[in-house]
Design brief:
Distance between the termini: 37 Å
Order of helices and strands: EHHHHEEHEHEHEHEHHHEEEHEH
Number of domains: 1
Number of helices: 13
Number of strands: 11
Helix content: 25-40%
Structural class: alpha+beta
Length: 430
């Protein structure tokens, strides 16, 4: 588990902007109308009497504005898909699907077109046709939907000649205890939102649309800190209580695009502007971890638990000094400390953009929590990002004794699409 989770500070972002407030007396959407109906009494609106007419008129003339969390939108269309550099949302769903027997390239193209249209509507706060009503009261709440393709997808739709080299199977690692039923898959969806019902609504809508073409292989649910839960924007903590994400690559880095995204003239051409997502379900042995003393936990990580500052000194954002020694001659950052083993300088510059969710799936038979990290890492080439870092962690990371890698997958995530297009169109129709 690399110590590079993205910083979740809610800073101004052109990808994430509040919706303008509706102008009364513009027509009200079905979502807002039914949501307000719950407050004034739905029976009055349905009955058609004076009370119902008054209530409907008051909704049209003076709608209650959505809160900042509910009104925030992340554009679906663009050169790159949303959900990669978008600030972490509070709720997430990861779902992999396998194509149904007989599903051909044409059927998959139609599915991706439907999915893209639905994602466009939901991320804008619109209500699709045949909606389930799960999120009628809410706005888009920073909803993002990201699509990807697994290695097995290409052979099943006759596109083996367009399979990227970067989708080669990940190597085995000694610490892996992988469940094949919860690994890999033909298609992949990543859904994130700052409202749980909005996130589930999108998950349900997309799953329903795939019924005749693809079947769910596995699905995982995650969470993060809710926006506004802290007195000021702060780096997130993981379930071990550690500040997690200080050293994540930043979009302002000169080499950020080179590390994370496939270049415009890269190969294959349909992946231009895309990225590769490594997905791992990493269970944390929290009972064992919690029994460690605070000092021991900090030595395993290489940072103070209270504020995330490196044990070499300074504040959270102070660069880690891997050469510093204590007064007794010992290394300030232990030889097997997570931040040392995962540092780019320890891995010939290898880096990836981590954008994970925590998860808790109840308790195991021995009473231990089935909880940990839904690791999602983005890079232009997994062999230059995830693989070298994980190999190093696998051999010498003190934190690995408290982790179990239980599921794994790798997906090619193409660039975004323009209005009227769908994600993956260059692959399926190129």
């Amino acid at each position: 588990m690399s110590k590079t989770t993205p910083n979740t500070q809610r800073t101004p972002d052109t990808q994430r902007t509040p919706n303008p407030q509706p102008e009364p007396p513009s027509p009200i959407s079905r979502r807002r109308l039914l949501g307000t109906a719950g407050a004034v009494g739905a029976a009055g609106l349905v009955a058609g009497g004076a009370a119902g007419a008054y209530a409907a008129e008051s909704v049209r003339s003076d709608p209650d504005p959505l809160s900042s969390v509910g009104s925030t939108t992340v554009p679906f269309h663009g050169e790159r898909q949303a959900g990669i550099t978008t600030p972490l949302q509070a709720h997430g769903h990861l779902i992999a699907l396998d194509l149904a027997p007989g599903a051909d390239r044409k059927a998959v193209a139609a599915l991706l077109r439907r999915w893209s249209k639905t994602a466009e509507e939901l991320t804008a706060g619109k209500v699709p046709a045949d909606d389930t009503g799960i999120a009628l009261d809410a706005g888009p709440a920073s909803l993002t939907v990201t699509f990807g393709f697994g290695r097995t997808f290409f052979g099943r739709v006759g596109l083996k000649d367009r399979l990227p080299e970067e989708l080669a199977p990940l190597p085995d690692f000694s610490a892996d205890v992988l469940d094949p039923k919860r690994s890999n898959g033909d298609l992949w969806l990543q859904i994130g939102a700052d409202d749980g019902l909005v996130a589930f609504h999108a998950l349900r809508a997309l799953q329903r649309e795939a019924r005749e073409v693809a079947r769910v292989r596995w699905q995982m649910n995650g969470f993060n800190r809710t926006p506004g839960a802290t007195s000021r924007p702060m780096t997130a903590r993981n379930l071990m209580g550690q500040v997690d994400g200080t050293n994540n690559p930043k979009t302002t880095d000169d080499d950020f695009d080179q590390r994370i995204f496939v270049p415009a003239k890269g190969k294959p051409d349909w992946m231009a502007g895309g990225s590769y997502a490594v997905v791992r379900r990493i269970r944390m042995l929290l009972d064992s971890w919690d029994h460690l003393s605070l000092e021991r936990q900090e030595r395993v990580i290489g940072r103070r638990k209270s504020d995330g500052a490196p044990l070499s000194g300074g504040t959270e954002t102070t660069p880690v000094d891997l050469t510093k020694v204590n007064a007794d001659g010992s290394l300030a950052i232990a030889g097997d400390a997570h931040v040392r083993v995962a540092a780019p300088v320890s891995n010939q510059g290898a880096a990836m953009l981590r954008r994970p969710f925590s998860y808790h799936d109840g308790f195991r038979e021995d009473g231990a929590p089935d909880a940990g990290l839904l690791f999602v890492a983005w890079q232009a080439d997994p062999m230059k990002g995830f693989v070298p870092v994980q190999r190093k962690l696998d051999r010498g990371d003190g934190l690995s004794r408290f982790l179990r890698h239980e599921a794994s997958a790798l997906f090619a995530v193409p660039g975004g699409c323009a209005p009227g297009e769908y994600v993956g169109q260059a692959l399926l129709e190129g």
